[in-house]
Amino acid sequence: MKTRLSVVAIALSTLVAGHALAADASVGKTREQVRAELVEAQRNGDLIADGQTGLRFNQVSPHLYPQATVVAKTRAEVKAELAQAQANGDLIADGQTGARFNELFPAQYAAKRTAAPVEVVAQGKTRAEVKAELAEAIRNGEMIADGETGARFKDLNPGRYPAEATFQAKSRDDVRAELVNSRNVKSN
């Protein structure tokens, strides 16, 4: 009898608590809304597939679920933007440096430029200076031979390149002073 009474008491308290939760304004979804969300999550694969990793079904098997499509521009808009970029020289000309055509060939695109003018950066060295530095680096073996280790040619083949000077050269005034001192020593 006591167990029956306690079972009834538990059932009654559960029923009252359920009605109290249903009347709560923070729990605003109806049973139909929850079911609709569950069906949508099942269709999209947004349910957890693996409890240990937390991966969802659409992450485990993406080919089984529809992919979200983003419609941003029409084909005609993209073609118009491409034509404008070609006319202005705003396309990438060199993939390694990221230089654009209008930066490499500014005279060719100067008249066609309709966008904001490209900021001209003053060059630090002339072409001749850069070529002279490159020739000197090649002659001295300063060029990088191995990109992974950063080893230079003179490090890999030291006999092929001139050795670095380890002595300190004398200035013209030092040589004159030594010459004068040596003459003074001979005359004494």
User: Helix segment count?
Assistant: 9
Rg measurement, Å? 40 Å
Helix content class: 40-55%
Please state the average pLDDT score.
78
How far the N terminus sits from the C terminus, by CA atoms, comes to 137 Å
Low-confidence stretches: none
Order of helices and strands: HHHHEEHHHHH
Q: Describe the sheet with the most strands.
A: 2 strands, antiparallel
Structural class: mainly alpha
Task: Record the strand order, biggest sheet.
Answer: 1-2
Tally of strands: 2
Q: In one word, what is the shape?
A: elongated
| Beta-strand residue percentage | under 5%
Describe the structure.
The model has no long low-confidence stretch (mean pLDDT 78). The longest helix has 22 residues, at 2-23. It contains nine helices and two strands, in the order ααααββααααα. With 188 residues, it is an all-alpha fold.
